[in-house]
Fold:
Amino acid sequence: RPIAWCSFLTGNDERALKYYDKIIDLNKQSAQDFLNRGHVLLCSGKRTDAIESYRQALPLGQDATAFRASLLNDTPQLSARGINPNDIPLLADVICKQ
Structure:
């Protein structure tokens, strides 16, 4: 997890995705892993895949309110990677819609 997160922060999306996929393949994933994997996909320009990964966090213990808070807390990291900070609340709305 630390390698995956640090890889994401430094822009090594291929490496970050490789590690998050390994975690998921081992069936050791948490809601945070799917959230962070979504970040990698989003910053890689794979918005549809990112939304799917984000949605997988919800049944793993993050209700919509907790998910929204986690996503918004990562705004500085996402904006540092080129995501418009104004888009993040809109993204949360798309993911958490019923």
Remarks:
- The chain is about 70% helix and 0% strand.
- The chain has a mean pLDDT of 92.
